[in-house]
Specification:
Layout: H1 41-62
Amino acid sequence: MQCSQCQTEIDENALICFRCGAATAARAREPVAEASGRQPVGRWLVVAVVVVVVAAVAWWVGG
């Protein structure tokens, strides 16, 4: 079998060309794109936890 990109002879079972790295088969599925303009909930949760911890430490040290 030959690579479709560089024409190097490759094994029939190869997933990629060892010379140029091109895939030997088409993708089964396309990757899902993330919604633009929205941040994941996890990021806001981390920020909220950090704010609560800083406030608790400030209250404990100040009191």
